[in-house]
Structure formats: C-alpha cells, structure tokens
Amino acid sequence: MFDCLYVMLLFVLLVGAFGAEEDTALCEILGSPEFPLLSKEGDITIGGVFSIHSQISSPPLTFTDAPEPLKCSRINFREFRFAQTMMFAIEEINNSSSLLPNISIGYKIFDGCGSNLPSTRAVMGLINGPERTLEKTCSSHLSVHAIISHFATCACLSNKKEYPSFFRTIPSDYHQSRALAKLVKHFGWTWVGAVRSDNDYGNNGMATFITAASQEGVCIEYSEAISRTDPSEQVTRVVRVIQSGSARVLVAFLAQGEMEILLEEALKQNLTGLQWVGSESWITAGHLATKGYSRILTGSLGFTIRKSKITGLREFLLQVNPSQDPYNNLLREFWEATFGCSLQSSPHGQTQCSGSERLQDIKNPFTDVSELRISNNVYKAVYAVAYAMHNMLKCGQSGEAKLSYLQFIMLYTQYFPHEHISVFHVSHSDSAECSRCQLEYWSNEDHSQCVPKVIEFLSYGETMGVLLTAFSLFGASLTLVVSCVFFWFRHTPLVKASNFELSFLLLFSLTLCFLCSLTFIGRPSEWSCMLRHTAFGITFALCMSCILAKTIAVVIAFKAKRPANTVPQCSAPFQRTSVLSCTLLQVLVCLLWLTLAPPFPYKNTAHATERIILECDLGSPIGFWAVLGYIGLLAVLCFILAFLARKLPDNFNEAKFITFSMLIFCAVWVTFIPAYVSSPGKFTVAVEIFAILASSFGLLFCIFAPKCYILLLKPEKNTKKHMMGRN
Fold first, then answer.
1. Which of these, 569, 571, 541, lies nearest to 553 by C-alpha position?
2. Most distant CA pair in the chain: distance in Å?
3. To pair with 81 at 20 to 30 A between CA atoms, which of 9, 316, 329, 580?
4. CB 259 within 8 A of CB 252
5. Interacting residues of 411 by C-beta distance below 8 A, sequence separation 6+
6. What is the distance between the alpha carbons of residues 601 and 180, in angstroms, rounded to a whole number?
C-alpha cells in the first residue's frame, strides 16, 4: 500500500509540473481538502502516512453526483503506535541542544486507512496542504519537507531514474522474496501454494518469489491474490482454492490487512493443517496469535525486522490522553476503543469514560513495546531526516530554495543501524550525499564528519589493569619471600625432605608464572603477542614438571625397598631429567607455533561498531590449545599420582598438598575455557590473566604455606622423627 503511495506522489508532481504549462487560470480543488489527524507547527515539517484505521466505507460512485466522504473506522492500535513513535522522536529532537538547535520540527500525520483512495487524498494533503485554490500548476508550496512512509518495500522503488528522491534503508522485497524461496527449499518443501496482496507490494514480491522458487526446484501449485477491498466472495473463493489444493505449505506475501481478512475466512472454513511461510508484514504481528488464529498459524516461519529498544517510548505512549487535545477526534476514538467506554453521554447505555483511566493497566498492541521493530524504523527515519537537515543547515544553506533536495524524501524505515547513516554531505549540485566512513572511523554525533573509533585494550592505566598488575607483582614478591625462607632453613629436615633443589626450581617457575601475566597487559605488539602465550606455556610447563617430579619422588621414596637415605640420591638424576624433558617438549611446541603461525596484533572491528578492539590473534588456534592441553596433561598426571600417594605413612605427606593444589589448578582452568570463549574484547585478556594468577596463587599456598607455617611458627615439628611419624 505504501509502495502505491509513493507512486501516486510522483504522478501528482509530474502532472503539476508539466500538465498545466499553457493554462493561466488558477487550479481549484473539487471537494474538501484533506486535513491531518495529528499535527504540530514547526520551522521544518515532516509528514507521515499510517494506516491508523483498518476499515473504510465504500461509497457508491455514480459519476453524476459528488461521492460521499470516505469514512475510516476500526482504529489500528499498532499503526497508531507507529504514529506516536514518530511524534516521540520529533519531541526528542526538539528538546535536543545539539541536533537542529534553535530550529523546531513540526509534523503532519495522515491516515491512509490501508486503501488507495484515502492514501491518494493523504498524498494531496501532504503536497498541497489545506488550500482550496492553488497556483496554475495545481501544486502550491509544499506543506512538508520530508515524508516518512513505512512498509514501502517494493523492489520497483529501487529504480533511481524513476524514483530519484526515494531513499531506502534496508534491502527491498527482492531480497526477502529470494530468501523465502531458499527457506522453502531448505526444508525440502518443493510443492507449495501462494497467496499475495493484490498491490505492488504483493504482486512484485510474489513475482520475485516464484522466479526464485523455480530456480530452486520448488513448484507452485497455485498463486492467488486478494485485496481488503475485494467482495467477500473473492476471499471465500481463494480460501476454497487453498483448502482443496494438495500443497500443505502456503507462502503468504500479504500485508497485515489482507492477512487478517484471509484468516477470518480461514476460521469460517476451518482451514487447518498448513505450514505458513510469511512475509515481514505480518510474521511478527503478535495480536494475530491472540485473536483465535493460533491454531491456524502455529509453526509459521518467516524473516523478521530487527527489534530494538527505544528508551522513554513506553512512558511517552502511556501519557497519551484525550486531555492533550480535547478537540482531537482521533484521541477520543482511541480512548473509547481502548477502554470500551464513551467520553460523551451515550443513549445506548454504554459505559461513560472518566478520562482518568490508566493505560498502564491495558495490554494491547499500542502499549506493548516488547517487540519494537517497525516502531524502531520510524524512530530511526525521523532522526535520519533530522541529521540530513542539520548537516545541510550547518553547511550554510538556508531558505526554501536550498531545502529543495529534501522536499520529497520518502524513507523506508525497516533497518537503520547507526553506522549506515555515515556522514551526510551536500554536493559541488545541491543533492544529498552519504559517504561511508572508513573501517577505523565512524560518524560523530551529528554525522558531519568521520572521527577515529576508540581503540580498546587492557592498559596499565585503567583500574582493571592496575589491579591485575598489583596482584601479579604481589604474587611474585610473595614467592621470592618464600624462597628466602626456604634458603634460610635449607639445612633443616623439612626442607631436605621437600627436595631442596626441586622446591627452589618450583618457586622460580611460580615467580615467572606471576610475572608472565604482565605481558598480557598493555597495547599488543608483535613481540608482546608472541611472548605472552609462549612465556605462559613454558613457565607453566616448567611448574607442572617440577610438581610431577616431586610427586614421583614421594611415591618412589615410600614404595622403594632400599634404605631411605639412598633413595634421594638415586632419584635426583631422574628428577632433573624428567623436568628438563617435559619442559623441552613444551618449548618445542612453542617453537613450532611461532615458526608456522605466530600470534600477531589484530584490530577487531566486528565485535563493536563504535570501537576497535586491539587484541592478539592466536595465529594458529591449534598451537594455543596444544600448549594449554599439554599443561593440562601434566596437571592430570600430577593429580593422579598425588591422589594415589595421599595416604602414605608420613606426618608430612607432601602428596596431600599436591592433590589439593591440583584440584584448584584444574578447577580454575576448566572454568577458564567457557569464560575465555564468551568474554568480549579486553575482558578476554582479563579472564586469561585471572586464570594465571588464580592457579599460581593456588599452587603457592597449597604446597608452600603448610611448610612455611612449620618453619616459622612450629619449629619443634621440624625434626626427622616428627617427619617420619615416630613418637
């Protein structure tokens, strides 16, 4: 329907421009001029046409007498919300100090009633205003500077030669129709029926679908058309065709008005058992599922318009009240239809409205803002016009002559992301131009120029970076303190039993583990990206190798049948060899990773449109997970051996503490994997640092805290007899 609206507008313009060139008489409108249902004065006026009513009277056309005025009835709450959304956006802009300052925007909202005749009158009202006598061209000065016409999805409007002033912010129905054909093919439905609205929207959309379906190997059993102005017999016939057909899949390329008419007749004829595939016009209309049609439409498929949230819209909608404009018939009609009452005394016993009823207590398509799809598009379209006006006026152009290039903007408002607005320019020919910003830039608030995007990475200057750095340095310092304690008590039985050499090597590796987390903080560079993952992998492999060697030493010490004092000397070469070989294997994996596909700094622009996330690309995910997997393998081996040796006879059985430390270590890194995968931007790095620090602190406290406790606070237990469990 709104596709036809734009074609009508263009026709009127052409007739006005060329049809009365030789006529010097003034042009006079026959009949009464069309007035907007909602209006507000402003320096700039934006027009809008919405199907605020869904039914229209059909006066007899005798061509001898003037036809009776068209009467629209049955208010459409959903479309009325669209109109109020336009008013809300204009109200926001008028209250803005940065967008169009000192310039007010007004509006003129007409009712198209979803039909050609009232839509034509709405077009005339938008172009000419309320004047009865016009200039000789049958077109006075335009009453609006831009027109917002939602749902104008017809592919025919993409022809810029025929419709140069039509701007589209979403792909046309050409793309939706082809996508529907692929959707049908995807589910293996090769025998389908088709029904469409008998207008440009339905006819063009269905024609494209049928062409695309035939290319996909899908056959069409029948293709029927209906219009809301058709006699009931036509709709009944179409439903009978669908009922008698053998196709169990029905593709309905229908406007919402025709869809409701079709469903009414489908209920009468008990039409069930069909798989419905729908166009965007009705597929998300929630009220269709609550009006008794659910048993017909269950399982319907289709492509939807992106939904969004509009801050403050619900509060604005709930303030709508007849008291805002006591003389506005539309507000009174809306109030009476919403609450089922009458604002005037009714002789038929209808409930009297007080005017103080609460919209907060009502749930209908007007108050429901949970699925803001088309409303969001109307909202974005108003802002697009405002930004265009703002930039034009900012360039120093003023006056009606300079406004000409925006006077007939028709915006289709179904998907308008911020970055697609980019930057508006006025061209060396007074035409509107929009240039997309480069990948590392985006438009400023008023869309007058491209500005660099914010570059995001985990830096030392932010709070999170400072905290992580502090914990890292604290852990490294604490490990050095423990090393000093162990060195001071190196000749005592406890330190000797703990294997002095391995303990110091383990403390050294833990110090490196704490410090390697610092390589993850700061602006990523080539060397830091390569260092952070390899340093992490090698230091933790060294750490796990030391713990594994200590665990094996404990098991050998208690399982060997030789004298106890000979076991450490015999196992020492084995311990050194095992630590060295296990660590060298990780070094080899890291060298292969750095040689074949090393990590490198990467600018991630896909995650967020307003900023660039500077991060380290792994280069080879296989290399990263191989390094992490090898550390996990060593940890599992340590845990198994320590668990088996946890009950060996010793007052100070180190295997118990190793078992507990491995439980913490494994728990940290198991929870790390889903957190690492799901964390966005710099938080991915923060999660990895947290896992490094948490596991390092866990190893330090579980293995060395009990020993330091005895060394410093319980020296009487630091004897060989106590260690061996001899009283």
1. 571
2. 126
3. 9
4. yes
5. 146, 147, 148, 149, 167, 168, 169, 381, 384, 385
6. 41
Confidence of residue 572 (pLDDT cuts 50, 70, 90): low
Coil vs helix vs strand at 353: coil
Lateral strand order in the sheet of 44-50:
38-40, 105-111, 44-50, 146-148, 409-412, 166-168
Give the 3-state secondary structure of residue 225: strand
> Environment class of residue 66 by beta-carbon count within 10 Å: exposed (0-12), middle (13-18) or buried (19+)?
exposed
| Collapsed DSSP state (helix, strand, coil) of residue 185 | helix
Are 509 and 546 contacting, i.e. CB atoms less than 8 angstroms apart? Answer: yes
Among candidate residues 480, 475, 488, 479, the one with its CA nearest the CA of residue 712? 488
Q: What tokens does 691 get?
A: 């896992």
Residue 409's DSSP bridge partners are: 146
**561 φ, ψ to 5°?**
-95, 5
Angle subtended by helix axes 526-559 and 621-644, to nearest 10: 20
Tell me the DSSP string of 126-145: HHHTT-SEE-TTS--S-S-S
Is 218 within 8 Å of 192 (Cβ atoms)? yes
**SS3 of residue 377 by DSSP:** helix
How many angstroms separate the CA atoms of 516 and 541, rounded?
A: 13
Rounded to whole angstroms, the Cα distance separating 721 from 75 reads 95
Coil vs helix vs strand at 659:
helix
Per-residue model confidence as pLDDT tens digits over 501-537: 888 888 999 999 999 999 989 888 888 888 888 898 9
- At 541-551, the pLDDT tens digits run 999 898 888 88
The one-letter amino acid code at 506 reads L
CB 528: neighbour CB atoms within 10 A?
Answer: 19
Q: Give 332-365 pLDDT, tens digit per residue.
A: 999 999 998 888 876 666 788 888 899 999 989 8
- Rounded CA-CA distance 699/544 in Å is 10
Helix pair angle (500-516, 526-559), 10° resolution: 160
**Residue 535 in contact with residue 519, Cβ under 8 Å?**
yes
What residues pair up with 134 in beta bridges, in sequence order? 27
Alpha helices in 519-650 (DSSP H): 526-559, 567-596, 621-644
Q: By percentage, how much of the chain surpasses pLDDT 70?
A: 82
Mention every residue, 6+ apart, whose C-beta is less than 8 A from residue 245. Answer: 193, 221, 222
Please work out, in degrees rounded to the nearest 5, the angle formed at the alpha carbon of residue 572 by the alpha carbons of 567 and 574.
105
Mean pLDDT of the chain: 81
